[in-house]
Specification:
Blueprint (H helix, E strand, L loop, with lengths): L1 E6 L4 E8 L1 H17 L13 H10 L2 H8 L2 H12 L13 E7 L4 E8 L23 H14 L3 E4 L8 E10 L2 E14 L21 E7 L13 E14 L6 H6 L8 H35 L6 H22 L3 H8 L3 H28 L6 H15 L3 H7 L2 H21 L1 H42 L12
Antiparallel strand pairs: 1-2, 2-4, 3-4, 5-9, 6-7, 6-9, 8-9
Length: about 475
């Protein structure tokens, strides 16, 4: 007998199966006989089950052990098939079912199968949320700054006795104090960083500006509220600094010789470098703005909607995050107990963090899936072709090689996700979407032309090589003179 119900909170179809008493009795009998046969009893053969052995075994084997053995995969499969009869074609089941034992005793058994379904989003808002797209085209200032960065990156670092500025490399010793006491992990010698790189606690690097070799100073900061070590969150700290060395970039002129040394294809003049940087920033700026838009729009949709998370998906995501976490600890040579001790956490608190991370990850997934469903977004042949052309042009590879290396099935999720973000841009910032579409369409045509020219050049080279080989005189055969 099957009883179907729907759990709205967890978005699951539950099917309860009341197992016939005779079937349950037979399963328990087989389970007991198997356990009793394998039981080691002094004076009795292990592989043979006699009435005497049964009598002794009945006093040694608990009901719980019999039930556990009886609930074998084969036994459960029979009643899973019964439960599947209650699932309709219209039910949007999204994963394998799980099972729980609702009621169990020597005389009765009720099994509950839970089928996770796609959640019903009663409130889901994703249009005209006031989220605007960021910068699309780089300014002349952006281009000039990028060229300066390229020059700096390829200039030599030399030691200096002058005061440190942003962009300089500094080597220093430091010791950190909280409430006047040194704290674990807060000290190091000969630490090196690029000032302004943002690798330290906010505010730390700004206070290094103006220091020079041999200086001793104190840096005062406040740990972020979301710092990964609970004990240090929002705490004020003082770091005692001893500057060991300051290195500055040599001033380098933007000459033809310098530009050629950069090794950028078809770039040897300032004009060509400027054009190259602009095109590079065109791509990077739109991609960066898309990433920022995605973060903002997901947050806005989440705030305006009521997202339902299937329990099974949350558990699976938690398992995935936990496995990744364990792998990270292993790579760092840290055990789980050591990590908990260092972060002043227990397993319960860690589980809460993992669940929060899993929910956050699922929020994005559920929103992307729902937008895709409502807007009927599917990748077509032209979408795959555009994606492959873009990659081939970007990495300077033949189009066929890219297609062979990245099958459609492997790229489908990435392509569809990009299409979803583009649709969300269109639905929330039409003006920006129109401008982006023009830029990307133009870039696609340029990439096609670039690939065509490359393939033509390769074909001509092969023909020339073949012609040269055909024109080479055949080697003369040596003839032996008869004596």
């Amino acid at each position: 007998m099957a009883n179907r119900s729907f759990d709205k909170v967890n978005s699951e179809i539950k099917v309860e199966i009341q197992v016939p008493s005779e079937s349950w009795a037979e399963a328990q009998k087989k389970a007991f006989n198997k356990l009793a046969t394998n039981l080691k009893i002094k004076g009795m053969r292990q592989s043979k089950l006699t009435e005497a052995k049964k009598k002794v075994a009945s006093k040694m084997i608990s009901s719980q052990s019999i039930w556990q053995e009886a609930l074998s995969q084969k036994f459960l499969q029979v009643y899973l098939q019964e439960a599947l009869k209650e699932i309709k074609d219209t039910d949007q089941v999204i994963d394998h079912p799980t099972f729980d034992v609702s009621k169990i005793s020597d005389s009765e058994l009720t099994i509950s199968f839970s089928f996770p379904t796609y959640p019903e989003m009663k409130k889901f808002e994703y249009k005209k949320l006031g989220v605007k797209f960021g910068s699309i085209k780089p300014t002349q200032k952006d281009i000039d700054e990028e060229i300066k960065t390229i020059v700096k990156r390829h200039s030599k670092l030399v030691e200096s006795n002058e005061k440190a500025e942003k962009g300089d490399d500094m080597t220093f010793d430091f010791t950190g104090f909280i409430d006047g006491k040194e704290f674990e992990g807060g000290a190091a010698e000969d630490h090196s960083l690029i000032i302004g790189g943002g690798t330290f606690i906010p505010g730390f690097e700004d206070q290094l500006v103006g220091l020079k070799k041999g200086d001793k100073s104190e840096v005062k900061v406040t740990f972020p509220k979301d710092y990964y070590v609970d004990e240090y969150k929002a705490k004020d700290a003082v770091f005692k600094i001893v500057v060991k060395a300051v290195k500055k970039r040599e001033k380098t002129e933007l000459t033809k010789e310098f530009i050629e040394k950069l090794g950028i294809e078809n770039v040897s003049t300032v004009e060509q470098l400027t054009k190259y940087v602009k095109e590079k920033l065109d791509v990077e700026l739109i991609e960066r703005s898309k990433a920022e838009f995605k973060t903002a729009i997901i947050k806005a949709i989440d705030e305006k909607s009521e997202i339902v998370y299937p329990r099974v998906l949350v558990l699976k995501e938690m398992k995935k995050i936990n496995e990744k976490f364990e792998e990270t600890l292993k790579q760092q040579g840290i055990t789980r107990p050591e990590y908990l001790e260092f972060t002043k956490m227990d397993e319960e608190k860690l589980a809460e963090q993992i669940k929060a991370e899993a929910t956050k990850s699922l929020t994005e997934q559920m929103i992307m899936i729902e937008v895709s469903r409502l807007e009927k977004i599917n990748a077509e042949e032209k979408d795959y072709e555009s994606f492959y052309i873009r990659l081939a042009s970007q990495y300077g590879m033949p189009l066929k090689s890219v297609k062979d290396a990245l099958p459609k099935a492997q790229m489908q999720v990435s392509i569809v996700n990009e299409m979803i973000i583009n649709k969300l841009i269109e639905l929330n910032d039409e003006k920006a979407f129109a401008e982006i579409s023009k830029i990307e369409a133009k870039r696609l045509e340029e990439d096609k032309a670039k690939l065509l020219a490359s393939e033509k050049a390769t074909a001509e080279k092969e023909i020339n090589n073949s012609s040269k080989a055909d024109k080479q005189p055949a080697a003369k055969k040596e003839t032996k003179t008869k004596k």
